[in-house]
Amino acid sequence: MHFGWRAKDERQRVLLGDLEVRKKEGGEKRQYIIWRTERGSKTRIYATGTDRCPVKFFRSYLARQPTDMGKPDNPLYLAVMKNPKTEVWFKK
Fold first, then answer.
1. Domain annotation covers residue 3
2. Is residue 85 situated within a structural domain?
């Protein structure tokens, strides 16, 4: 939604390595998520510092994936486990 993905197949093609958390340099050191494979106005999502901060949610999502799914060529979206018993909430 934030990057302007419209079609279902467009979202399914996104790989983990396509997104990256960076820090804005200069005066204000805000974190942001960048969609590395595209150029344009909708390729960055900035941290808000609120309870609904998109950078915080993205980092939490990454922390709840299986450890073997953290490679850049793995899909971004994974299946949700119905009743997770650990901190891993997603599956291949």
1. no
2. yes
* Separation of alpha carbons 65 and 18, rounded Å: 16
SS3 state at 79: strand
Structure token digits, residue 6? 């419209």
pLDDT given for residue 1 in this prediction: 47
**Cβ atoms 63, 40 nearer than 8 A:** no
pTM score? 0.72
- When divided into structural domains, the chain yields a total of 1
Alpha helices by DSSP H, the chain: 8-12, 54-63
Q: Are 55 and 45 in contact (CB under 8 A)?
A: yes
**In terms of pLDDT, which residue wins out, 63 or 7?**
63
